[in-house]
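Milestone M4 deliverable, item 7.
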Amino acid sequence: MSGPRPERKLSLARARRIALAAQGFGRPRPARPPSVNQIASLVSRLGVLQLDSVNVFSRSHYMPIFSRLGPYDRSRLDEIAGHGTGRVDRRLVEYWAHEASLIPVELHPLFRWRMGEVQREAWESIGRISVDQPDLVAETLALVTEQGPIRARDTGAIRPPPRPGHMWNWHEGKVALEYLFFTGEVAAAGRVNFERFYDTIDRVLPAEILSRPTPSACTATTSYRSYLATRWSLGSISSPTASAAPCSSKARLPRQASTRSMSLPSWPPSFAWSRPGSASRRSRLPDAETCPRNWQRSSDDPDLSVYVDHAFAVGDWGRWSGGGHMQADGLGELHEFAESVGLRREWFQSKPGRPENDHYDLTQAGRELAIKLGAISEDRRAGTRRRQTVRLARRASNRPPAPG
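Output delivered:
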């Protein structure tokens, strides 16, 4: 009987590439504006599109499509989400999956456990209204059933005066609608000018989705994690999603053949999903400026120990002009990072007995790319001091102990 599969160590540089590639940044943008099917497929891969009322440049849920597929007709996303006044091809539905979010319709049943835990899961004012004003909730549901889809203003409730500490200042009709929305008795039929329209759940979701059995909280959480694992490729075993069920401490991602336990610096126990193409280190990824929070690394990052300097000699063929050398604190990290910037293993240069001089030569473009991917830029003096420190430490470790 074979034992458990050994835990594999993964560097942060490799983990970042896997995560970015899994999130759609490793594929070239289509030559033509993406179709409805391409947009729907991308959202399915992402698993969620967060909605946000804050609008600076464009509504937040439009941006992830652009960053991965390039310029596109936003009405195509509106069509599958039910937004706007045009044709509806329902493939996405809104729910509190993370924050208010668009999710693929097939995921909606996996949140029924949360709908049944409204008193614990929803914020206080939402849960309290069913206890304090049950008649209002019943009347609001009847109104939606009779006249839906409706807006919050259609309840006839009057917005109260502004109150300190109340960001949204909802009236009672809006609170009742939000309670029904949270419990799944009504759904978001769509949005027009970002204003939510409410309708009964059976008039929003396809019958096939409604007829699916309701899984237990643990089963739903495990299923959701498995869904995310195949798309995100990396995540924490204990909490790959903020919307974890109350029994999530006992529900773990199944140890299937396609999952591996991973060890990452400064991370909790993690998983990796082995999926062809998701972890390609040669994937074409964006420049650092396009996703600075996820991609660009600070030179103070202790977990990324790759260095590049300026070349101090220029060959007659000009190959080193503006280039440099790339080194690392560890040989494995050096080879892995070199592959990330497109260098072949046979280009590695090493001198016997002088491992501190192991390096790859870089062209100017290669040096710039390495820095964008997080390598630490150093001048010639800094590089000399670093190598000298490594050499002295190596000699000290090899020195025989003094006779006792």
